[in-house]
């Protein structure tokens, strides 16, 4: 081999939705390069141990946050000689979606890693280490784009939810107000919702609880 | 570093459309592993020389085929310990689109690399080296999916084309017949076509030649 091998890392944009705002998990780096800067959860691929890069990012998230995201999607590669002062490096980046309620539960269960993480609104990010700001921009664009024609937003909701909660989630991601009856007609047409038979809100303003029929991504643009 | 560094490669699915069939460029490997098997054009990232992996694949395509594709898009990473018998490896794969007429011209101009390549229909592929069959499947799915809402198919056409050629290109990619007046209405609504003022076909059945107004990807799903 005539050329040095690149450093291969994985990074995740762990997204959640809290009080109508998209937030991501960041931690403060405790060593160079970019010591003290905020950064995405990530780490080096352990060749011979990780089966593939998806296994690498799952291991890193488990080790650093104690957490297994229900939804994980490969985003894209960021690479080059300038992004890490140490050497030519490559990051395989991922988008992970987590309901805020699951994060609360994990935090209360005392997952050690999560102590080091802060959730920050994507609209108020501090300067980030490496090219992590570009990774976050790409991740948010992917989520917003894909949400317009798929059930991706469901992965930011608890397992059971009201139609109003569902609509507010789509509105927060798409950054637009949706017309209630159109929205409900679209969900009916997709045929992805299942009525749980349960209700919330008491006798005065009861609201039915729904769940996603099949917890795989429904993508209207495919097939 | 406690772990060996992965081998980092780039591979391209160079797609063209000929006689209504999607075809990809393949060459026969002249060394192990997978000696004599057909494979995608690809190569190892030259860290310290390539600015990033997109520069790597452009260099590889230039060296192996003499060709600069007008459209190049990062597809996804394929990685793992089993895909290459030599070591844990990672391929950043790309989709490249090339009009058949440009390939003809390149071939006649005698680009040395292209002698070694064959264009094979994606519906009649031989067994491929490594996990290249999976890369091709992902590339064709990406092209088909994205073509339903974007101007991606234009990159398989010559610079000037008739509306019938444009419709046949969409039909070949989407594997469906499109209704002529609906198709033309959609293209009008997109506002991406420019009348060149030229015609083909003689006085009996003249057809106007169009071109794409702005040769960047128009993606209806974004913005």
From TrEMBL, chains A, B:
Q: Which organism is it from?
A: Achromobacter kerstersii
Named from the GO MF annotations, one term is: catalytic activity
The organism's place on the tree of life at top rank: Bacteria
In its UniProt entry, what is this protein called?
Nudix hydrolase domain-containing protein
Q: Please name the PROSITE patterns in this protein's record.
A: NUDIX
Q: Which residues form the Nudix hydrolase domain?
A: 6-143
Q: Which residues cross the membrane?
A: none
Give a Pfam family name.
WHD_NrtR
